[in-house]
Known about the structure:
Blueprint: E1 17-18, E2 21-22, H1 48-62, E3 80-81, H2 86-89, E4 109-118, E5 124-125, E6 137-138, E7 147-158, E8 164-175, E9 186-191, H3 198-202, H4 206-215, E10 227-230, E11 235-238, H5 250-262, H6 279-283, H7 295-306, H8 319-330, E12 341-342, E13 357-358, E14 366-368, E15 386-388, H9 398-401, H10 416-421, H11 428-435, H12 439-450
Antiparallel strand pairs: 1-2, 3-6, 4-5, 4-9, 7-8, 10-11, 12-13, 14-15
Amino acid sequence: xxxxxxxxxxxxxxxxxxxxxxxxxxxxxxxxxxxxxxxxxxxxxxxxxxxxxxxxxxxxxxxxxxxxxxxxxxxxxxxxxxxxxxxxxxxxxxxxxxxxxxxxxxxxxxxxxxxxxxxxxxxxxxxxxxxxxxxxxxxxxxxxxxxxxxxxxxxxxxxxxxxxxxxxxxxxxxxxxxxxxxxxxxxxxxxxxxxxxxxxxxxxxxxxxxxxxxxxxxxxxxxxxxxxxxxxxxxxxxxxxxxxxxxxxxxxxxxxxxxxxxxxxxxxxxxxxxxxxxxxxxxxxxxxxxxxxxxxxxxxxxxxxxxxxxxxxxxxxxxxxxxxxxxxxxxxxxxxxxxxxxxxxxxxxxxxxxxxxxxxxxxxxxxxxxxxxxxxxxxxxxxxxxxxxxxxxxxxxxxxxxxxxxxxxxxxxxxxxxxxxxxxxxxxxxxxxxxxxxxxxxxxxxxxxxxx
Length: 452
């Protein structure tokens, strides 16, 4: 029997309160009226059946999982895991943040692990004792793998007019390791990204990505398409999701998060990921639900994530914002943060996500961002210095929705200006152009970014 669903208020007499927000109010409300919920609205034009699928998927995204054998359809957490729900890291469908110091636990971040060499299909080679990421938590009787204690080193950057900007660089120490040392490990700190607009990004034709990559060398940058393994088709295909474009499609990225972050199995990854050295993990009580998140529910959460709408821009008539947009493009930022892209109809959801023009401010390509941002950890064809161009839509609302302003893959940037000043490699010229601007020009460019 299928679960109950949450319908919009326009279709039922009462609405449902989840996470301090009235679910039913989404249909009649807007990001302008409720900016703290700006990342939570569905795309326009969904009919009743599509709305039902969206809210069913939202239930799965919010669901807190339990240890087997109890928990009903929420049984399956662990044996090793980081958090108990998707929403725990992606609060209000937005960005996670790092701890402020080593005594705080990572609540919406994690550490990817690997060892030198290639794993299956060219993926990162999992650490023999710890696997592909550090799982700090364990089910009863299963030791968590340990903890990553994060500290910050202070440095500064000096702009052309003599202004000094304080920056910080992360430093990780692994403590309480349960399965031996990590001396040979490659590791990368990753924050939970925002999850809205992903269905639209999934609709960008690969031909568009390749065309942009072919045109960029004339503008001084060299974006490349990552090639990753698609577990559904069994083929190597272009990657477009994840900090290094290391996932081929939204459904696989969701399934990777369920098995990696929650320890919840799906049809795409039906086995618990316990290494040979983790005897307690392999002996732990299994859920009666196999897989623990079945195909129908995985489809629901895929639909939900695909149909979360990017928030609309604000202050577009503000002269400072208009001036900042001109400076953004003149500084070369728009070469990688491409302002607009044309999509095709979504390959699975063509009726609800038709062909359209979107404004994500990304090219979905990998770029060498220099040694200062390098993690030294290759991921399929992505080198240890390459990162996918982060979409900028919605970035100005992070302080409102998520109540922090931390940016970049590891949250090191505390402001938009700091994020710009960390750019190196292919982003060096754009950073230098920004650093050479007068103070009022820099303020205008930042005002433009805040309008996104």
